[in-house]
């Protein structure tokens, strides 16, 4: 016996003994109330976190994968038999756009046969100008060209303001 009626018990309709929707003489038959159907469909859309066949949840739980990624990286580094390099105070990685990725007191691991180096720790993104006095001996030719362009730009800005004369002359 297939029932086609849903959501409102027939005892809430005027004649509870007979369902006009499906034609059965059952007191527990259900007939359709469109308002309740729409309301339940909206609730179902709000609580379903995935596609068809997934469980309905009150809120979508986002799993953090940073720890699992770190564990995977560390296990792969162990497979490469990396060794820790001690007494490194800082690591600076200079980008093409003139910014520097700066690590202070990093954990550096290396595997020379695998040509693999790992630098981990707290990183900071800085401009070359913020680190200028200390970073000059670490700059390569490409960075020096970028630094020269920056110095020319600063000199032009200084000359535009009309302060190119030496004071006292």
Automatic annotation (TrEMBL):
PROSITE patterns: NAC_AB. InterPro entries: BTF3, NAC_A/B_dom_sf, Nas_poly-pep-assoc_cplx_dom. Coiled coil: none annotated. Residues 67-132 form the NAC-A/B domain. Belongs to the NAC-beta family. This is Transcription factor BTF3. It comes from Ascaris lumbricoides. The lineage of its organism: Eukaryota, Metazoa, Ecdysozoa, Nematoda, Chromadorea.
């Amino acid at each position: 016996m297939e029932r086609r009626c849903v959501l409102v018990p027939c005892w809430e309709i005027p004649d509870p003994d007979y369902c006009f929707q499906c034609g059965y003489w059952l007191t527990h038959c259900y007939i359709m109330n469109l308002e309740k159907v729409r309301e339940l469909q909206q609730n179902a859309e709000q609580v379903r976190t995935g596609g068809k066949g997934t469980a309905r949840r009150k809120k979508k739980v986002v799993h953090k994968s940073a720890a699992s990624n770190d564990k995977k990286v560390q296990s792969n580094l162990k497979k490469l038999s990396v060794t820790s390099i001690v007494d490194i105070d800082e690591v600076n990685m200079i980008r093409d756009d003139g910014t520097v990725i700066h690590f202070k007191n990093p954990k550096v691991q290396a595997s020379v046969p695998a040509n693999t180096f790992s630098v981990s720790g707290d990183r900071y993104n800085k401009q070359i100008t913020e680190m200028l006095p200390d970073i000059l001996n670490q700059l390569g030719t490409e960075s020096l060209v970028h630094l020269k362009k920056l110095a020319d730009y600063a000199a032009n800005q200084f000359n535009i303001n009309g302060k190119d004369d030496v004071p006292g002359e």
